[in-house]
Write a structure and sequence with these properties.
The chain has 339 residues and is mainly alpha-helical. Helices cover 60% and strands 0% of the residues. It has a domain of 232 residues: Hypothetical protein af1432 (Orthogonal Bundle).
Length: 339
Amino acid sequence: MDTIRDFTYETERKTLCKLASFSEHTRGRETDANLCEIRTPFQRDRDRIIHSKSFRRLMHKTQCFLSPEGDHYRTRLTHTLEVSQIARTLARALRLNEDLTEAVALGHDLGHTPFGHAGERMLNELCPGGFSHNEQSLRVVELLENDGKGLNLTFEVRNGILCHTGKISALTLEGNLINYADKIAYINHDIDDAIRGGVLKNTDIPKELRKKLGETHGQRIDVMVKSLILATSENFENEIGEIKMEDNIYEATMKLREFLFQNIYFNPIAKSEESKACIMLEFLYTYFVKNADKMPFEYKKYIDKASVERVACDYLAGMTDRYAVQTFETLFVPKMWGI
């Protein structure tokens, strides 16, 4: 008797382009698991990620602005959801595997540090061998989640998570799609948050970029998404398996990204509190390297398999912003004494 999963396989065979990743042809998991009668392997990976503790913690991790006052600024979780939405739109338009795309998008930042990229840079300086959030995201899903068992995700999802940033391209088109969706999301929503916070005015964006990409948040996303669909569709028609934007739109997008680095990411006003966050992380890292027994058992149990420095990084990277602050206060801030 056919299962719902088998009907989905059949639907994929009929609707996806030949360059897509087909669920029934996954390279599988590190540990074999019985197939679900309802969900494909990629749908199952998506669900495992959504139900993980590291996914829930993203709601209290900085995206761009540290501890903003207001309910409408992005967090690492809302960033992840926006990446997922953009990526799914692109995958559906290009007839790629939407479930694989969604799973990679939802898992791509699971290993991100508290305090955004400032926290990532700090841990990279402190930890022997360096630290990068994409590699940590892979470590989360392969080892740290599920009480040390990991999430046992498919190869394609793990590869997409690892390669969503950096110089190495993912081995699937769906994985490569996340690299673009991530940039489209953060470039536009970080501008939106900067304008909301009074750090930037829309008219500060160079006129030629506004003319080419659009005057508003929605217009810019629309231009970028449509450009990628058009250029990639032309590649697919010529049997070229490459995700790309039109050259002129990609060039403008990268110039806008450079504008963000100069005016938002390294803006002394917007980033005035980051140095304090980095000092906190340095104190915490030094403390837990010297006092490994003070880390929770779910982390210190890995010391036999990895260095204490790496385990301390695992613990700190898993912290939310507020938990890091709370831990610092507990360890280093004197408490009022009363009778």
